[in-house]
Hints:
Among the domains are: about 5-290, Alpha-Beta Barrel (7-stranded beta/alpha barrel); about 400-515, Immunoglobulin-like; about 825-890, Immunoglobulin-like (Sandwich), CATH 2.60.40. By secondary structure, the protein is of the alpha+beta class. The protein contains 16 helices and 49 strands. It is globular. Helix 9 (about 305-330) runs parallel beside helix 12. The termini are far apart. The protein has a nine-stranded antiparallel β-sheet with strand order 26-27-28-29-38-35-34-31-32, with helices on one face. Strands 11, 13, 14, 18, 39 and 40 form a six-stranded antiparallel β-sheet that branches. Strands 25-24-30-37-36-33 form a six-stranded antiparallel β-sheet, with no helix packed on it. Strand 20 (about 525) and strand 21 form a beta hairpin.
Amino acid sequence: MPKKTVHIISHSHWDREWYMAYEEHHMRLINLVDDLLELFKTDPDFDSFHLDGQTIILDDYLQVRPEREAEVRAAIAAGKLRIGPFYILQDDFLISPESNVRNMLIGRKESERFGAPVELGYFPDTFGNMGQTPQLMKQARLDVAAFGRGVKPIGFDNQVLEQSEEAYTSQFSEMWWEGPDGTKILGILFANWYSNGNEIPAEKTAAIEFWKQKLADVEKFASTSHLLMMNGVDHQPVQKDLSAAIRLANELFPDYEFVHSNWPKYLEEVAADLPENLSTVNGELTSQETDGWYTLANTASSRVYLKQFNTKVERKLENIAEPLSSLAYRLTGEYPHDKLTYAWKTLLQNHPHDSICGCSLDEVHREMMTRFEKSESVADYLIEDALITLSKGISFEGEHPFVVFNTAGHKKTGEVEVEVVLTRKLFREGLPEQLYDELKAQPKHIYKVVDSEGIEVPAEISAEEVLFDYDLPKDRFRIPYMKRFVKVKLFLNEMDALSWKTFDLVESSEEVTTDESMISGYTIENELIKVFVSTDGSLSVTDKQLNRTFNDLLIFEDTGDIGNEYIFFQPTGTHPILSTDSLPKISVKTDRPEIAQIQLTQTMMIPKSADELLDEEQKKVKEFHHRQAKRSRELVPLELNTIITVRKNSRKIDFETTFDNEMKDHRVRVLFPSELTEDTHEADSIYEVVKRPNSMPKTWENPTNPQHQGAFVNLHNDDYGITIGNFGLNEYEIVNRSTIALTLLRAVGELGDWGYFPTPEAQTLGSHTFNYSLEFHGRPEQRYETYKNAYAAQIPFSSVLLDSSVLTENDKHTELSHEGKFIEVNADKFAITALKRRESDNGLILRGYNLSNQNEKIEVKAKTTSLNLLEEEIGEKPENLAPYEIRTLLIKEGLNNDGEDSTRQMKSPKEESN
């Protein structure tokens, strides 16, 4: 019988920040790479070291050791340092689909800048694996993924589960992994964790004991004669005597061949030796068949402020800055690749699993807030720069014209606020206070807003104000001035996806008033729905198209939480506190024909914290589900203020809830009973609307079943359904197969995991605002409209003034019409995730995915070429989208489907009349 080969791969799983602040990890990284470079010189038998699949390690090292770049490059060229293919090791579920792709794009570019990447999808410690991993990997030219969580037989940490009567998801550590679209790749599970070959003894007695146990463990699950031993663990220093330890192992165990290996070698040899009876695992891998305690899904609600900020920055970068910059490119031929990459890299630095999951020390998450602010500032600059460029390329004669852009990939209904400058006086014209008084003294006027056809558009216009402002031209010194302005709130209904329209603020002879109202008492009603606020603060909603009334909606629930940043745990013997236990205050906030808002104020009496026992149990590092702490008997008021918004032509109800959290050790959720009792539900995930079970198997011991979501979660049957949308609220649970419970906030006081690490800022004290929505739909095919509405709601309108007074002669060119579309896509169930420029040639890139499990037709009003996720051309693809297919298209601009020029410029009605 041939020998089995034991592949020992040296690595260090580099948590960039976690139970130490970033710079403490950083300094240890410097020591690690210093040691590696020295070891490569002194030990010719040391094969190589795997740099954890993330190229940011190179940036972090060279930031401190720039003089050693040549040595680093030489080590990579010699195959001693194995790098890439990603930029960071992200959390799959808590970042957007595009963030996952940009991590691959930037990681590939960074890898090729230094050498060549390891062609392996590397997910050693991701908290669950996304279902579309196979398709994402294949479209990035990766055929294998290695991962540590999500499939039995792995136990907690490095524990090997004992064989039992239960069937494993996969009987081997090697398996086929099939995505929802049918794409298959090879999956390598770290069945004994990614530390099963850590600190191999170089002393005989210890080595015999070590290898007897380790070989038995790995052979339980290996399907081939190639056994994988990962020599390293979290931020582990390199084992300097590894070569000696391997020589000793070969002497002690002659039936095995121990080699210092590397991923390319191991993958090549294991792939050639795979048996025919490998299992196939399907879709997302989130430890569905375990006891449910260590899925770590509750990190979706830890430090929820991080998730909200992340969502805001992602939307600005991928859904506003990039589309606007792509359109502005038509005027300038310039696209801010480097600035966008800088913003993306800064944002991605917040996306490792211990960072975006909110399961690190307070110092770590404070630094994350700074990174969010930096990335957002770059996005804001690029948005403003693109808007100014576009304002110079759109000609429209009017009194005070402005343009509104919908950069969402779907039709959008909502409001946009525009500050319209009526007149300005430059500081060079006089003293600031004098200019202020002159503008203040000007007579006031009545205004209205009209569209490009001169038709009045619903708007709310503020009183005229005077304030300081300034311009920062690119070719001269700043220009300070005083401005006289009004604030215009425009009410838009189903503005086309990826489009722009010009409006004009004009003087009016009289102020228009109307008696139209959607509010009567505690009821808001339009032609589609009727919303009634009950005396206990819950809602009853009648959907007129369904002819159904749904009761007891919008009930807030507070429970104790004596878990940690990873895991929610309700104190035993305690019960939820509900907002319906007290009477609310109800008032009208907005009453217009286009929009109605009722404000709901509720006070819940909440325990101020857990009792004193929790502090002692935490210090003892007592396992969370063995804790006996209860909630404090001292109650304090939690006042929730919720604005309920209904628009004239919409079935969607929007909510904005604000409260000042002064309590510790608790969780706040909002409940939406559906009157459905279904076996499955759907949620927005990474390039997938994933179907998940509402009940868990017998192995599941956790009384809760938290789940991840992006923009929405949906429950439906064959007749009707309910979609709950959100902004940056990534945790939900389906309770009793019927109620959607959306987590707003979870407050805990410790990191958890393997030691005692207090995190007082994870109690999230202070003021918080949460945005979410409710929309009913009819038969199942109608649910996709609610999904698109949830996506569009996350992306605000953009606007810019068309002010000819600030243009130079060079600026006065007309290249865009007063209204138009970035690109026209006809596909009912195609969710657009990106409109950007390709770095290699500035080609226009459109990316999205099929929301459904059916073939869907897609029509783009332009010639296109299909690309993979690395944005490399792969030839033409079928007209139809396969189920859940991710598609990236290169748009041949200026050509319609017949290859004819379709860029004829349109003129405004006033231009036509001239």
